[in-house]
Design a protein that fits this description.
Layout lengths: L3 H14 L22 E5 L8 E4 L1 H7 L17 H14 L3 E9 L4 E13 L2 E12 L11 E11 L14 H4 L5 E4 L2 E4 L5 H9 L1
Protein name: PAS domain-containing protein
InterPro entries: DUF1457
Pfam family, one: PAS_5
Length: 208
């Protein structure tokens, strides 16, 4: 795990689950991860594996240049990569374990950006892995973030993290570590960066 947000979210989720394979969706407290909310999202694991976003942080939405609520997670993996997105979801469900992945994001103008993806299973209303908590964080800040949106993702590598496997996971990062670029504000078709915490994501995460 390379990104501070990835390490922080995994450490929080791992503490919540204890000896279980996954915590309950209702146990997630957005105030406990307020410093990384903009990098996080929750998806629904449906039978069709469209995996709609229930909520997405502002920096995740800024990467693709639009609000992601209700949009399909697997649709971000276009063409031949579409099967990779679905297979990654299936692997997490079948293994009952979280996974971290190295992802290449391709923008509308053909630029490539390295991202780190974390997917963590959640129980919801008695169903195992009915939701997934995740983070999607750029390892380097895209130079035209908000102007040149990501159009598709490609999977470079992935790693399943099994129970009992301990990673070097520090506590929640400082704002400087967790927030590599400022909070985007949507104005028309652009995202403008102005700083401040992701309050909208915090409120929505409590409900989803």
């Amino acid at each position: 795990m390379k990104h501070a947000a990835t390490r922080a979210l995994f450490a929080y989720w791992d503490t919540l689950r204890g000896e279980r394979c996954a915590p309950e969706r209702s146990e997630i407290d957005p105030t406990a991860i307020r410093g990384i909310l903009a990098d996080t999202f929750v998806i629904e694991v449906d039978d069709q594996r469209t995996c709609p976003f229930r909520i997405a942080g502002t920096r995740v939405s800024a990467l693709v240049g639009k609000e992601l609520k209700g949009e399909s997670f697997t649709a971000l993996w276009q063409g031949s990569a579409r099967d990779e997105g679905g297979a990654l979801i299936d692997m997490i469900v079948n293994e009952s374990a979280p996974a971290v992945a190295s992802v290449i994001a391709w923008t509308r103008d053909g630029a490539a950006c390295d991202l780190e993806l974390l997917l963590l299973p959640l129980r919801h209303r008695g169903r195992t892995h009915a939701r997934m908590l995740g983070s999607l964080s750029p390892l380097t800040v895209p130079p035209r973030l908000g102007l040149d949106p990501v159009e598709k993702l490609e999977l470079r590598s992935q790693r399943v993290i099994y129970a009992g496997e301990r990673l070097d996971s520090p506590g929640l990062p400082t704002p400087r570590e967790a927030l590599p670029f400022a909070r985007p504000e949507r104005r028309g078709h652009l995202f403008v960066f102005s700083g401040g915490k992701d309050a909208d994501s915090s409120d929505a995460l409590k409900r989803r």
